[in-house]
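User: Sequence for Acetylornithine aminotransferase below. Tokens please.
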Amino acid sequence: MNREPVSRELFDEVMVPNYAPGNIIPVRGEGSRVWDQEGREFIDLQGGIAVTSLGHAHPGLVGTLQEQAEKVWHLSNVMTNEPALRLAKTLCDHTFAERVFFANSGGEANEAAFKLARRYSWEHYGPEKHEIISFKNAFHGRTLFTVSVGGQHKYLEGFEPAPGGIHHAEFNDLDSVKALISKEKTCAVVVEPIQGESGVLPADPEFLKGLRQLCDENNALLVFDEVQTGVGRTGYLYAYEMYGVTPDILSSAKGLGGGFPVAAMLTTAKVAASLGVGTHGSTYGGNALACAVAQKVIDTVSQPEILKGVNARSDKLRKGMMDIGERYGVFSEVRGAGLLLGCVLTEQWQGKAKDFLNAGREEGVMVLMAGANVIRLAPSLIIPEVDIEEALERFEAAVKKLTA
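Assistant: Structure tokens for Acetylornithine aminotransferase:
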């Protein structure tokens, strides 16, 4: 079948203008490398924004997808299916969770988490206990509810009135939470173990432990948004293990499907009981194709040698970026955990993250931003060592040109 040629200009003709994609259009990927329409090769340190956890065209994922595609794609939740039940059992076996709800995206998983938190408190304590405490600069999704819980007003502008009963404390400041929390009104505290979109900012261990204690004292639920930090990204299957703090509800997406849209909300049996029949749903949630692929991802990523490998790759990438930062005076620190790293620009280069992203692309390496002052790296968890070395060489060439 002959198709019309596709160009970047076509985006402006047919798409809603809420994105501003770069000029290259990748058409093929293998491992941690992608090729565009002209055949130019790029090393991928973006990972689809922490999504392609096993790289591009992973043989195990391709095989699983093909195998399931010949059986059942979709059934709806009027029935259940084998892949969804197997995946739910696996997630419960590997985590604190006893119950799972499947959705399609991180925003949907968070929407379910926040609705569950309110419903649980409504059932157990009454309608007054409905307030949610979140954090400034947090990001939890783009639905009206999740963008309201998120702490970045720019994403809410023009969409008000927002849902009420949401307060924003200072991240890593327990006193600011103490000033807002109450046994009478607070139903949940929602936090990212590492704030992703606002600059790859890790929570202090004592801060998360303090949140757990405050929630316990005030009969509130602790919700961890692990959309970006989950599924091996930090060198642990989920980041709550790294911190030794167990939430009541956890949201997972991004890397869970390795590129296939799938998400999950994990919780305990006691809390889950509040989402009884008919209280919440998702047409595609628990889709057989998505769950089969996610099963393969979890089976692969949860292997101890894979998680150990994440930390080894992290050390190499972190040291390499810090060396570049010191040589050219561009980074003050490299922070984060595992393969979610943020390279913080020095004062001289504040606000210029996009320039580094563009310069990198010209040299054949794809990086991300997390705000205007941080270069974010979220590559495949199994990126080969040789690709890390070559990516660092290419990025250094980009920085050299930019700083000249």
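The longest strand covers residues 331-337.
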